[in-house]
From TrEMBL:
Superkingdom of source: Bacteria
Keywords: DNA-binding, Transcription, Transcription regulation
The organism of origin for this protein: Holdemania massiliensis
Keyword Iron: no
Keyword Transcription regulation appears in the UniProt entry: yes
GO biological process, one term: negative regulation of DNA-templated transcription
Pfam families according to UniProt: GntR (PF00392), UTRA (PF07702)
CDD domains: WHTH_GntR
Domain HTH gntR-type, residue spans: 5-73
InterPro entries reported in the protein's UniProt record: Bact_HTH_transcr_reg (IPR050679), Chorismate_lyase_/UTRA_dom_sf (IPR028978), Tscrpt_reg_HTH_GntR (IPR000524), UTRA (IPR011663), WH-like_DNA-bd_sf (IPR036388), WH_DNA-bd_sf (IPR036390)
Molecular function via GO: DNA binding; DNA-binding transcription factor activity
SMART domains per record: HTH_GNTR, UTRA
Protein name: UTRA domain-containing protein
Length: 244
């Protein structure tokens, strides 16, 4: 007697094969339940059961109001320079792969007298700079430590916000100085001792170090950020194009 698994399990196996074969890519939205029901000529409840199993087993994740997506490698950020997501922040990237994103502010306040940072922001050394240092978490695991600096003259009340709860970019947008153009630099470095403690890794462990400078619509530099990101929690992707 030949055993045939239930139809929803056959559909589950078919979707897993499409993921493994690269037909469905990480963080890509799969067809809707209605579309799958039509494609496979089965009822939507069968599709729903298959999707629920795949979500439970970690192959897929749902975003309310948007759809169902292929989960990337579990508990890993997807970084890179591909497409419209190139400038996504850490929290947005964590949420995109199904992690619960959170932040811990380890310092925020106005500083001055830092020639290197003043130069990055095209400011005089005597000008005030607002500094925001945060540890970024995904599913309560440290992913990155982020050092952000913005011109104090443009953001005089920046110290009044709780940046564990409030988006820095929402605040900058409200001030009409949201960064919309970015220059980026990527390095792989040995993690300094101070950052290693926050990231819960050994000092000297290889980490990604991103530096980027943000300009607002007028072209003015409004942000400099340096971020150390754990390589064991990250996949890196980029796109290249052949010139004709």
């Amino acid at each position: 007697m030949n055993y045939r698994p239930p139809i929803y399990m056959q559909l589950r196996d078919s979707i897993i094969k499409k993921i493994e074969d690269g037909e469905y890519l990480p963080n890509e939205m799969i067809p809707s339940e209605r579309e799958m029901a039509q494609l496979y000529d089965i009822n939507r409840m069968t599709v729903k059961n298959a999707i629920e199993v795949l979500v439970r087993d970690g192959y897929l994740y749902r975003i309310q109001g948007k759809g169902t997506f292929v989960r990337g490698e579990k508990n890993k950020l997807l970084l890179g320079t591909a497409g419209s997501e190139a400038n996504y922040g850490i929290s947005a990237r964590a949420k995109k792969v199904g992690m619960k994103a959170s932040s811990k502010v380890i310092f925020h306040g106005f500083v001055q007298g830092y020639p290197t940072m003043s130069q990055r922001l095209r400011l005089d050394v005597a000008d005030q700079i607002f500094a925001l240092h945060r540890v970024r978490y995904g599913d309560e695991q440290p992913l990155a430590i982020e050092y952000t600096y913005i011109p104090g003259a443009l953001f005089e009340d920046a110290d009044l916000n709780d940046y564990a709860q409030v988006s820095l970019y929402d605040y900058m947008n409200n001030k009409n100085h949201l960064p919309v153009e970015f220059g980026q630099k990527l390095m792989v470095v040995g993690c300094p001792q101070r950052e290693a403690g926050q990231l819960e890794i050994d000092p000297g462990t290889a980490v990604f170090c991103f530096e980027y400078t943000g300009r607002d619509r007028s072209g003015r530099i409004v942000e400099f950020t340096r971020t150390y990101i754990r390589t064991d929690k990250t996949n890196f992707r980029f796109s290249s194009y052949r010139s004709e």
